[in-house]
Amino acid sequence: MAKRYDLRRQPGFSQIAWFCIFMLYAPILMLVLFSFNDNRSVVKWTEFSFRWYTEAFANDGIRAAAVTSLKLALVASVFGTIFATMAALATTRTRPYRGMNLAYAIINQPLMIPEIVTAIASLSLFALIKQITGVTGIGYLMLAHTVFCVPFAYMPIRARLEDMTLTLEQAAADLYASPIRVFWEVTFPLLIPGVVSGAMLAFVVSLDDVIITLMVAGPGETTLPIFILGAIRRGITPEINAVSTILLAVSILLVAVFFLFQRKTKK
Amino acid sequence: MPVTQNMNQLKPTVLAKNDADEVPAISVQGLVKTFGHSSNQITALDDVSIDIQQNEFFTLLGPSGCGKTTLLRLIAGFELPDSGTVLLHGEGIEHLPPHMRPVNTVFQSYALFPHISVADNIGFGLRMLGWDKAKITNAVEKMLDMVRLSDLANRQPDQLSGGQQQRVALARALAPAPRVLLLDEPLAALDLKLRKEMQIELKRLQDQTGITFVFVTHDQEEALTMSDRIAVMSAGRVLQVGQPKEIYNAPEHRFVADFIGDINVLPGQVKHRQNGKLVVMIAGGSEVHLPDDGIQSDSLFVAVRPEKATLAKSGTGALSGVVNNIVFFGSGTNIHVSLSDGVDFVVQTQGSETGLSLGDAVSVNFADSAAKVLRN
């Protein structure tokens, strides 16, 4: 039998792979490990304990920041996903029109623009609006997050729509479903895996954002990453490790739920 | 809302059953459809007009790219014509979107909804028409029974075999009792044995429901077996419409003759026209007398089916040639004869014993009535 080509047989391949995996996950592993360390030091291990978790939960600042972050991420991912779904439909489920490719490019462009530029642009625009209307509040931050979530949610939704054959929607129309019913009876149910992964991506991106939040957030609108950043200026504490570990656990959970969900809908 | 009114008129359940039988189920007039922009425009349909009678099993036959599927999609409403009209039982429908046309389609890929059960797939059209649940359940049971899938009602489509999916697609399209059922190469994905079974099943369903079937296929045998009438299409045009026998025995176009079954095509020259007869000199030197159907050109083609010709000893027939191949195919034998001018002529005989061997000099005979003039 002829030898099959197998990348794993290349010299050094598995070593490189293991090195990369180590570099990716070693810092995270350290962080998780020391969040359970019963010692103020983040470099010297003494004893296993939940002490920093209890302290983090008892910390009002952390609690308030977590609530703000979750609220923000929820609003941004829900609205961002709705707009992204509409945009994805408009760029895949219409007769080709002039400027369709342009629309596609415009929707994705925010991913290429340096975030600091978007942040400063948002800051000046919102400052202007605030000056004219006098309205303040967390609404600006929600708006900014919603906007930058759109392209992230758009990508998986569009990919899913492109995979779905138009014939199913034509079959529904053929069986007397009006365009709106075609969408709710056929397009949307089949699109759900794309919508869910778009929403989760948007949620995580919003939860993680620093630069735009830093610029746009008003007084008292502190999100978890901003709080951590502030705390770190006063020195790394295991309490921060504990909060970061919780953030990590939440995102792993989201991804796991998503994969289970997707497997179920595929069956 | 005028649109809704219009739709109600056309809903299959509301349609009056006592239409005059003379009104064609589908009448397309002067349909033109082009795709693409001016620089690389493709004409999919080039002035197509067909009348399809009620309760007819009508087949659109042609090679891929001939426009048959485009015509079907124009009737279903998935494409809009550049010009021309589509009449359904006398009413113009070419401006209506698909969901307002009381015609249903069986797709080549079946297009079953993967996220709902077999029963829900079959009941989909009825639900969209606003039937109440009990009535839908009843109708779905009837349909399941008709396509013999009652045991599989609660399965998901991807748990079914290809043949079963095909039957669900049929039941789903037939459930709303459409005025016309459109079938887009529905048997193409099935293996030969299953295809034969489904051919019989389709005929049975058409008899049982009395619904007009418009069937698209590129398989000439399938078309001949199943159809009441066939329209042979090529390059966006309808070349000939007729019963299978007419299409087979009296092809008018060279393309039709070539496409349907095996046929010998001989170039000929009109010697003279008299009393409604054409006297045509065919290659090899003999004369054939053919009915004059008004063909203008003097150079034409004469077609003879292999089974309509016979072989005789050399020098006794119209055409002479040499046996260059003998092909046994089970129920008969094809004898290929090289005519004196080099044209290959096939004669079909019954049985396996021909008493001939390669290189024998023979004569080919056929009655004048077996020969057909073809338009090029």
Automatic annotation (TrEMBL), chain A:
- ABC transmembrane type-1 domain spans which residues? 66-258
Asked if the keyword Aminoacyl-tRNA synthetase belongs to this entry, the reply reads no
Q: Membrane-crossing residues?
A: 12-36, 72-90, 111-129, 135-154, 182-204, 210-230, 242-261
Top-rank taxon of the source lineage equals Bacteria
Ordered alphabetically, the record's keywords are: Cell inner membrane, Cell membrane, Membrane, Transmembrane, Transmembrane helix, Transport
| Task performed by this protein | Required for the activity of the bacterial periplasmic transport system of putrescine and spermidine.
Belongs to which family? Belongs to the binding-protein-dependent transport system permease family. CysTW subfamily.
Query: What is the protein name for this chain?
Result: Spermidine/putrescine transport system permease protein PotC
What organism is recorded for this protein? Pseudohalocynthiibacter aestuariivivens
